[in-house]
Amino acid sequence: MEPNVTVDLLVLNDQLAALRTNADMFFLLIMACLIFFMQAGFAFLEAGSVRSKNTTNILLKNLLDVCLGAVVYWAFGYAFAFGSESNSFIGYRYFFFESMPADNYSHWFFHFVFAATAATIVSGAMAERTDFMAYLIYSCVITGFVYPVVTHWAWDGSGWLANGPDGIAYQDFAGSGVVHMVGGTAALFGAAILGPRIGRFDANGKPKPIEGHTVPNVALGGFILFFGFFAFNGGSQASISAEGDGVIVATAIVNTILSGSAGALVAMVIRRAGFGTGHWSFLTAVNGGLTGMVAICAGCNAVAAWGAIIIGIISGFTYLVWSWLVLKCKVDDPLDAVAVHLGGGLWGVISVPLLSYESGILTKWDLDSAKLLGWNLAGAGAIFGWSGLISLILFGVMRCIGILRVSEEIEIKGLDIYKHGEPAYPLSAYGHGWSVDVEKSGKHVNGNAFTNGGFDGVLPVQVFHVSNTNEQANHANDANGEKKQPQSSPSADGNTENTQM
Predict the structure, then answer these.
(1) Which of 114, 212, 187, 119 lies closest to 154, judged by CA?
(2) CB of 464 within 8 A of CB of 437?
(3) pLDDT by residue (tens digit) across 287-328?
């Protein structure tokens, strides 16, 4: 009887181990799918922040951050980051999944969506004037090389940042430095080398606003990104079956919303108090919230709720200061991506060794906590130096050979039609089929008021087109000795009424 019991226990133990492995894989995949949805958030946010003539262009770039990124990360990005054979600087196994066990697929997918996020940050900062071929090149380099190398340093067991002096390790749970500083640094160098959009600064260097074309899109994108950050940070635990995993995941998610909320409120209030327009700015609140969520990535598992609030409060200040500083340096960043991701990411890396409830300076005040701060600062410096150097070479070479920026004519007219042949808002798709006659006297054509006289759903350009067409028809009739008769057109209540030209 005892041998059978032993065998049953061994089988049960094996089944339990398999269940735990499957549960962890499932958890990682579900979290990765939620993070993948952040690409939709970036698409809405970026599309709403640019002018309508460049909407299709920025949407395609967001799509290709995924499609191009998946192929590149499969080919060599994952091998550089987590190859089974490696040194302290880079991995060099698993190219094209060679010899990679299927057990790693969930891990690959999770880190692929992180890599796509890093590339997407850059496209926003360089929006509305970057040549499409240049985008394809830099997206491949960031997703396949720049980001994976940093990932290896910090998150692979053999990376040099993960194996610091005296047994200390770089602390960055969900990527304030590894993801957001990489993307933010590349965005800074790219936007600076690319140069500002035409009309962004006047002859004296004073900034002039260039507004995005739809705040509702920005709002929808912001909410999607807020939602995605819960998985971005909570999923970084990478398992759910071990004791304490659930608590860590819950802590990370709760800290994420607390830090993001504090960042949004503080940034909005400061802007209202006079640091800028003096209004209750929705766009400022969104970016302040995103900065708070970026900053909490590094320590979302390690700080108490009060620590998350502090991180969020300082993030609100951080966003506004970085946004002002970038503009002061005459760097044109349509999305404020540098302020949100580089500024927020740097503060996040610094905040962990300060506020961690187990090893932070404010809670422990000992030599080990000081070493952790020093090592995190070294990590932040290395990430900025590596990302900045590669970006400087990459964008500098493309500028020198003339493929970085579109021509002045294309930039002024817009990228959508010339580059893609697909305007985001084709005029032919607007209006309705009701016949209208328009008096050219301007009685009904005054600014944007097209709701009187039966003009609901008609664009200004269509109204003037109808007016000019009718005028030409009248001239033709007069030339033929004919007199135009009154026509019937539908009134606002659906009945017909006579209109006299």
Answers:
(1) 114
(2) no
(3) 999 999 999 999 999 999 999 999 999 999 999 999 999 999
Q: Are 77 and 144 in contact (CB under 8 A)?
A: yes
3-state secondary structure at position 91: strand
Report how far residue 34's alpha carbon sits from residue 113's, in angstroms, rounded to the nearest whole number. 10
CA 457 to CA 450: how far, in whole Å?
A: 8
Alpha carbon 170 to chain centroid, angstroms: 25
For 16, 177, 407, the CA distances from 352, given in Å and listed in that order, are 35, 11, 45
pLDDT in tens, 324-375: 999 999 999 999 999 999 999 999 999 999 999 989 999 888 888 999 999 9
With CA atoms as reference, report the closest residue to 135 among 194, 219, 95, 91.
Answer: 194
Phi, psi of 403 (to 5 degrees): -115, 5
Q: What is the pTM of this model?
A: 0.86
H helices of 181-304, where? 182-194, 215-234, 245-273, 282-296
Q: Provide the CA 101 distance to its chain's centre, in angstroms.
A: 32
Give Cβ neighbours of residue 331 (< 8 Å, ≥ 6 apart).
188, 191, 192, 196, 338
Bridge partners, 201 (sequence order): 207
Between 356 and 428, where is the model more confident?
356
Quote the CA–CA distance of 37 and 42 in Å, as a whole number.
9
With a cut of 90, say whether residue 455 has pLDDT above it. no
Residue 335: the pLDDT is 96
CA atoms of 256 and 266, how far apart (whole Å): 16
Total residue count of the chain as it appears in this document? 501
What percent of the chain shows pLDDT beyond 90? 78
* DSSP one-letter code for 427: G
CB atoms within 10 A of CB 290: 30
**Residue with tokens 């209208």, as numbered in its chain:** 436
pLDDT at 482: 45
d(CA 48, CA 204): 29
Strand partners, 490: 496
Residues 390/141, Cβ–Cβ less than 8 Å: yes
- Split at pLDDT 50, 70, 90, the class of 12 is confident
Token pair for residue 175?
Answer: 């990527």
d(CA 487, CA 501): 9
**498 bridge partner residues:** 488
Q: How far apart are CA 190 and CA 185, in angstroms?
A: 8
